[in-house]
Amino acid sequence: MLTLSNLKKSFGTIAAVDHLSLEIPKGEVFGLLGPNGAGKSTTVNLAVGLIVPDSGNVSIDGSGSPVDVSVRRKIGVAPQSLAIYEEMSGRENVTFFARLQGLRGRELKKSVDWAMEFVGLADRQHDRSNKYSGGMKRRLNLAVAIAHKPLLLLLDEPTVGVDPQSRNAIFDRILMLREEGCTIVYTTHYMEEAQRLCDRVGIIDGGRLLALDAVESLIAKHGGKRMVIAQTNGKRVEVACDDPLAELQRMQSEGELETFHVERPSLESVFLGLTGRSLRDE
Amino acid sequence: MNAILALAFKDLRLLMRDKVGFFFTFVFPIGYASLFGVIMSGMSGGSESTGGIPVVVVDDDQTDGSAAFIEELVASKEFEIQKSTLDDAGNLVRKGNVLAYIIFPKGFGQARERIFGRIAPRIEIGVDPSRQAEVAMLEGLLTAKLYERVQEAFTNPEVIAKQVDESLANLAGEEDVAPVTRAALMTFLPALKIFSKAMADDDSSGGMSNAIQAANIDVVSVARNETEKLNVYAITFPQGIIWGVMGCTAAFGISLVVERTKGTLLRLQMAPLNRTHVLGGKALACFLTTVTVATVLILFGIVVFKIQPNSYAKLAMGILAVSLAFVGIMMLLSVAGKTEQSAGGIGWAVMMVMAMIGGGMMPLQFLPQFMQDIGSISPVKWSILAIEGATWRNFSYVEMALPCCVLLGIGIVCFTLGARAFKWSS
Q1: Is the ipTM of this complex over 0.85?
Q2: Which residues of chain B have pLDDT under 70?
Q3: What is the rounded distance in angstroms from the CA atom of residue B279 to the CA atom of residue B283?
């Protein structure tokens, strides 16, 4: 569905995206994971044709570059910053942007009804969007992106500043869209979101793609060992190991094991292992 | 085209929901034009006021002659007369309630009646020293009023004959008249009596008043062919329209910056649109709004203040030219600032200067000559001229072409510069 081939984009002397290549098949939720400034938004902007690469190609659904207006109709984007007109109602926002996508008449109405219902704003659709909570605005941002039923949906940090309830609602909607066959590119620096939602994850830093695989595979390859954290003889002990059960038995044999828990490696540890720094350092 | 229309209607919807923008676009210009219309009607003799020079008169003479002259002043549209005592009259002048007081001293009535008497009628004027220009006008008007008596007398040979007989009788009883003067008057006055009679009998001469009149001065308005009085609101409403148009321009100039700062421009850029769609939508919305504002304002003036445009076709031509010019200015202003504050500040600063030097704040005629010359660089001047040309200056189509072409030129240049400077990509 989305193919990025050897993309390169620099701003001055800074390489925002550095020879990045990846291919995302239809119906996949793909996570682009990286800290702030890693190049995620630049990659999204290249993917939607908002900026032109210095070199390399972008192809969507095998039909060409997103700079082409007809290709851009296949894309839906929910930008990181809320891009809605606050003086217009939720429904007016969705209707306006859907009309720009070429929808008219009954099809337009049906699509808007569906989008408002899908994001759970049908009962507040006629309220001005400046009356919405932060979470509702995020959902409206999503509704605007999906009203025209895009084949490719790019969600750039869609849960920033959202309360847990709205966040869960957004997750549920994304999974529903995947069920309907929509290809989703999801950028975030929250590893737990990527772990929960994404079929595959690409880890990006300094504009370069450091790793690309399914979450479990990435963890297995780059996450390192599991960590046993225990309290023995009044002392706290942390041990990295391949077999936690054997390690716990060893601790039990050496003294009184008061408390313990085992931590599995996560994407955070994958990122730490790949870059030597934490995902949320910046 | 559908995308441009959708973008334009979105902007119109947003404008209607912006209460401040709506006020400065529609309400403020009507208030401005109405207020200045009321002020100007007061200055030029509108229906609400007599419009004359406010003076207070003190009749110390208390004769039929002085009373008759005061009644002539009261009946005159040039004066707004109050009668009072000397003390009160002085206070009224000091407080600035009236321009001057006029005292008619004893003997005024008799002296005025005796045209050929050796004592001229005397009046005393106490004036507000801060209003010298109006005082000079008052002196001139009073002199003209006093002269009317002489002119009136010379139009009637019977009055002349009566005045001559009375003057000759008085001359016979006055011993202090110099012999030369007495001889001259004894010769001149009877001859005048005969001349007056002869002129009255000669139909072709037009009477003696024509013989003694220095000139006939007819004042006509060169702006209109019609004989009706110019409606002052026809002068103020073009200015009001320009304020409305400038309000639109400021609002739409900022809106493009707001789109950028709020992130909605980013979404528009990601939609299947190009820069032509976005700029076209913004320009169309601005154009429709300025045309609507101008039309609503002029209709308000026509319905409420009875403005009668010379030509509706020329008015439409003027409004279209003004709207196109300000659409171009909007486009240029929209790329001038990077934040809402800077764009708004720059926009209004530019337009205030344009209004100031272009006659938007005060009619150009009231400004010094060099300011009037500078005003030619302001689109406000040409905008006002284009609308005035159609409302009361009675321009021909050829005369309308100059301001309209200048405005179109301004619009094209500004739009081109603004569109070129507009950054489509992030």
Answers
A1: no
A2: 40-51, 117-118, 202-230, 365-366, 424-426
A3: 6
Same domain, yes or no, for B21 and B84? no
Classify residue B190 by its DSSP letter.
H
Contacts of A85 in chain B (CB under 8 A): 10, 14, 262, 264
The tally of domains found in chain B comes to 2
Question: Same domain for B291 and B412?
Answer: yes
The residues spanned by each domain of chain A are 2-219, 225-264
Domain hosting residue B242, numbered range: 2-43+233-421
Q: What is the secondary structure of B82-93 as a DSSP string?
A: EE--HHHHHHHH
* Domain termination site, one of B212, B243, B276: B212
Do the Cβ atoms of A100 and B6 come within 8 Å?
yes
- Measure Cα distances from A167 to A139, A202, B118 in Å: 9, 22, 108
Establish if A72 touches chain B: CB-CB under 8 angstroms.
Answer: yes
CATH code reported for the domain at A2-219: 3.40.50.300
Contact B264/B72 with Cβ under 8 angstroms? no
Compute the nearest-CA separation of B249 from chain A (Å). 20
One domain for residues B182 and B245: no
In order along its 282 residues, chain A shows pLDDT tens digits of: 888 889 899 988 888 899 999 899 988 999 988 877 888 888 888 888 888 889 988 888 877 788 777 788 888 988 888 889 999 999 999 999 999 998 999 999 999 999 999 888 999 999 999 999 888 898 999 999 999 999 899 998 888 877 888 788 888 888 888 888 899 998 887 878 888 888 899 988 888 888 888 888 888 888 788 888 888 878 888 888 888 888 888 888 887 788 899 888 888 888 887 877 666 554
Spatial CA neighbour of B379 closest among B345, B349, B356: B356
Q: Report yes or no on B221 lying in a domain.
A: no
Q: Which of B263, B268, B271 sits opposite A81 (nearest CB)?
A: B263
How far A81 CA lies from chain B's nearest CA (Å)? 6
Closest Cβ opposite residue B271 in set A70, A85, A97:
A97
Which residues are CB-neighbours of B78 under 8 A, at least 6 positions away?
A: B52, B53, B141
B38 and B65 in a single domain? The answer is no
Assign residue B159 the CATH number of its domain.
3.40.1710
Look at residue B226 and tell me if it is in a domain: no
User: A150-177 pLDDT, tens per residue?
Assistant: 989 999 888 887 788 878 888 888 888 8
